[in-house]
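Look at one such:
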Amino acid sequence: MTLFPVVAQADAIRPADYLTFDRHQAQLGQLLFYDKILSGNQNISCATCHHHSLHGADGVSLGIGEGGAGLGADRTPGDGLTRIAERVPRNAPALWNLGHTGVRQMFHDGRVEMADDSGTRFRTPAGVHTPEGLNSILAAQALFPMSSATEMAGAPDENPVAAAFATRIDLGWAMVADRVRNVPEYQEQFMRAFPDVQSVEDITIVEIVNALAAFIGTEWQNHDSPYDKWLTLGEPLSPQAEQGRQLFFGDAGCAGCHSGPLFSDQAFHAVGVPQFGPGRPFDGDTIPRDLGRMETTRNPDDAYKFRTPSLRNVALSAPYGHNGAYPKLRDMIRHMCDPITAREEWTPGMARLPDVDWLNEHDFRLMSFGDELADQIAYLDIAPVEMVDSDIDALEAFLNALTGETAETRPLGRPDSVPSGLPVD
C-alpha cells in the first residue's frame, strides 16, 4: 500500500485555465445534448444521464440507459422486446469543469486520453477510426456514449444506426451525422456556428461532437466555492470546514490523490469500492467484475484502478465511487479512510438502483465470488488512516465547502424544445 505525502493546498482556478469555446457552438451543443436524435432508437439523449436537474449526472448508482424512460431514480426499464438487458455498468460522472486544461483523460478508466500536449490528438477505443478535427478531449469523449448499445445506440437488430456501429464504429457516426444534417433547423445552426460548414454535406460527426464539447466545457465551469474565497480572498471557512481542510491536506492524506485545482491527480488508483451490477467483463471473462484501467492498458498492474475524480461540487454528485456504491458523502469518506472495514460494513441496500424485476437477482452476483473479492482487496494501493467521527464530520464539512455558490445556476440550462421535434427529458 502507498502512503501519500502531505500537500499544502490545492491551486486556484482562473478563467484562463479553461479551454476556449465558441459561444454559438455551445448554444448548438445545448440542443444536441438534449436531442434524442443522437441515439439509435431516438429515445435517449446525453442529458438523460447528465441532466441539469440532477447536477449533470443521474443520481443513481448504475443508470438505465437505452430502452428506458424518465429520469434518475424514477427512470423505468422498458418492457417487452425493448426492455433493457442490463444496467449501465458504471456510474454516470458529473460534468463539472471538464473544460479545464488540466483534464487529460476521460471515463472512469481513462480509455479516452490525450496522445500528446497539442490537445488535438487522442487515444481512443476507435483507434485509427478516431476522426480528425476534434476540438478537445471533451469532443473525443462525446463520440462514445452514442456508440454504446447499452447507453444510446440500442441493439443492432433494432435500428440501422446500431447495426452500423456493430459493423464499424465510424459507420455508425456517419449515420448519426446523416440524421442531424437532414433537420433544416440544424442545417442553419451549423452553418452559423461553424465557418467551415458551407453546405449540408459539411456537417459531420466532428462538428456534432465539437458543439457538444463547447456546451459541456462552458456550461459546467464552476469555481466560486467558499474554499475558493478562502484561497483567493482570505475569507475564513467555518471552524469545522477549516478543521477538515487541515485534515484533508494533512493527516488524512486525501490530497495525495485529490490534488491540484480540480482536486484530482488525474491518475488511477485501486481503492476497493464494492462492486456489483453487470461489470465490464472482457476477453471471455465470465465474472461480472470491472477491472478498471486494466481494460484499457491490458496491464495486470492496473487491475481495479479507476481515475481519481474531481471533488469540486462533490456534494452535488452522489452516489459515489465508479459504480455509485456509496449513497452519502460521509460513507465515501469512511471508505477512503479505511477501505477494508468499509467493505465489510457495506450492504447491497446502500446501492441506489432503480427497480428492475428481471435484473434484481443478478445485481449482486459478484458477492458470491470469494476469490474475486479477495483480489480486489489484494490490489488496494491506499493505506488506511485512523479517523474518529469528529474527523469524518470535519472532512465532510470541508468537501461541502467545495460547492460553488452558483453551481445550481447554469448559463444555458435545459432547452424547452430541440430541432428534431423529439421530446425533451
Summary: The two ends are 45 Å apart (CA to CA). The chain has 16 helices and five strands. Confidence is low (pLDDT under 50) at residues 1-6.
